[in-house]
Design a protein that fits this description.
Keywords: Transferase. This is Xyloside xylosyltransferase 1. One of its GO terms (molecular function) is xylosyl alpha-1,3-xylosyltransferase activity. This protein has a 4-stranded mixed β-sheet with strand order 1-4-3-5. The chain has helices spanning 6-24, 43-46, 67-71, 92-96, 98-103, 129-134, 136-141, 144-154, 162-172, 201-205; strands at residues 53-57, 61-63, 83-87, 120-128, 177-180, 186-187, 213-215. By secondary structure, the chain is α/β, with parallel strands linked by helices. The chain has one domain (6-215). The protein is 35% helix and 14% strand. β6, α10 (201-205) and β7 form a beta-alpha-beta unit. 39% of the residues are buried.
């Protein structure tokens, strides 16, 4: 077990992610402490080179299967993919991309699966650190000018940290991501069903198959065994 000092990590992270914080943070500005919500984005820059793969998970999870099985998903990454991540299971990005969607009525951006691009949820993340280090494209996308360019293109203003960054990049470069099955991150939050999207909510929320990890996001109770 290696314990990392959160202040030291934040110190390393801040210069890398400072530019994206204003686009993907809930606060009104760029807060130093916000940097930790972007840890996954730059994990490959701050972890020792000998660490080649990491699974990063939220705390509000309940495991129904062996986490070792999740490591096998790294073997399913297509060439060029650097991160494994499940789709967002609420229409949050249908909402966030409203202006882009209005200007591009035929877009798949924000549309539900299986054919749409609903965005990602970062509660369960497979980070292929070696692939992230090697990917010229991924590292270019971390540059402030590229972040600015994409946020302008998609009229994007989020508040969910790394998840927003991955979602926006995924709209432009889906080849960077290995999409995990929803059963590896079975999100339970239903907030958007009661906030204007009841008519389409179930298209995002449905998940077939035996759940491997429950995610009690937005403080949603997780089913008892």
């Amino acid at each position: 077990v290696i314990v990392h000092d959160v202040n030291e990590l934040t110190e390393k992270l801040f210069p890398i992610v400072e530019a994206m914080q204003k686009h993907f943070s809930a606060g009104s500005g760029t807060y130093y402490s916000d940097s930790i919500f972007f840890l996954s984005v730059a994990m490959h820059r701050i972890m020792p080179k000998e660490i080649t793969q990491i699974i990063q998970v939220d705390l509000d999870l309940k495991y129904k299967s062996n986490i070792r099985d999740l490591f096998d998903e790294f073997d399913n990454f297509a060439e060029g993919a650097v991160i494994g991540i499940a789709r967002e299971m609420q229409p949050v990005y249908r909402h966030t991309f409203w202006q882009y969607r209005r200007e591009n009525p035929q877009t798949k951006v924000g549309e539900p699966p299986p054919d749409g691009l609903p965005g990602f949820n970062s509660g369960v993340l497979l980070l292929n650190l070696e692939a992230m280090r090697q990917s010229k494209l991924y590292n270019q996308l971390l540059e402030p000018a590229m972040v600015q360019k994409l946020t302008e293109k998609y009229h994007f203003k989020g508040h969910l940290g790394d998840q927003d960054f991955f979602t926006m990049v995924g709209m432009e470069h889906p080849e960077l991501f290995h999409v995990l099955d929803c059963t590896w991150n079975r999100q339970l939050c239903t907030w958007w069903r009661d906030h204007g999207y009841s008519d389409v909510f179930d298209q995002y929320f449905q998940c077939e198959g035996e759940v491997k990890i429950y995610h009690g996001n937005c403080n949603t109770p997780i089913p008892e065994d």
